Amino acid sequence: MSKSLEKEQTLAPAGHPIHILMEEHKILLHFADELVTVAKGMREAGNADSAADKMEKLRLLVQRFKESASHYLREENVLFPYLEKHGITEPPAIMWMDHDKVREIEKSLYGLIDSQKRTSFSDFSKQLQEIALALADMLSKHFHKENNILFPTALKVFAETEWPEVRHQFDDIGYCAFTPEQALVAFGIPKVQASEPQAEGVLTFETGVLTKEQIEAIFNALPGEVTFVGKDDTVRYYAQSKERIFVRTPAVIGRKVQQCHPEKSVHVVNKLLEDFKSGRRDAAAFWINMQGRLVYIRYFAVRGKKGDYLGCIETTEDITEIVKIEGEKKLLD
Fold first, then answer.
1. Could you tell me if residue 180 is inside a domain?
2. Is 331 part of a structural domain of the chain?
3. 23 shares its domain with 159
4. How far is CA 167 from CA 85, 143, 232, in A?
5. Residue of 104, 205, 281, 302 with fewest CB within 10 Å of its CB?
6. Are residues 180 and 14 in contact, defined by beta-carbon separation less than 8 angstroms?
7. In the structure, what pLDDT confidence band is assigned to residue 79 with cuts at 50, 70 and 90?
């Protein structure tokens, strides 16, 4: 199956996001072909002792498929959104459904490997062959659709200036351990957007634009409580959470954070702040039992782009119900 992709036309030069994805397609199909071969060999071996070398090869291939996660994440979180901005919505939605099908097959593979010692060799090798064939077939069809429909569409509708931006965001997400080095050569420089007049009450960030009202509403909607302490150890802000655990009033604004804690714990506060300021620590967590509830308290150092200390955030959350969670929940009540 991997040979069919080898014959397909290269759509973009090395370093281009499309080139990277297509090279990964070839390698993933090669892994899928190897998985089919290994599965067939295990069935022919007849018993675990005769298939020991194939089991080792199988575990290596499973690790490769686990490492492929970033391939799909780059498409879903960068390529697809850019397509949608150009009005191309249905193909990305279909491709994302394909990704979920691939993940389900891979999940079955991982589960089978985990249960190998509890499964007869005959059943194990039979299920492995079925999964391997399903995965190879799914990847072959999916990659063919992307290479021949999705990617050419993206190359047609994207502006040239957008591709360096896509590559930059690909870099942020990261690549697979098997992504070829030659595919990752430098490609363009993300265009710096010209600054535009900023509307009153609107703040422009690197990752979006929000109004003051939206920012305040976001903080208030976060689970638990959020408090910000400036670099001078003064309380500067707290969110008006719906379900408060600790009392907060406007009177604490401008108050030294040490004065917000009982004397017996001030030394802990000071040590934590010293560690944040010196760079020895970036986070700390505590948990306490409070009136039958488990309360999780975390502190995070807030630093500027150059690493300078700007202050710290305190978050407090009742995690009593969270620690009871088991299994999965994918549907609304």
1. yes
2. no
3. yes
4. 17, 20, 40
5. 205
6. no
7. very high
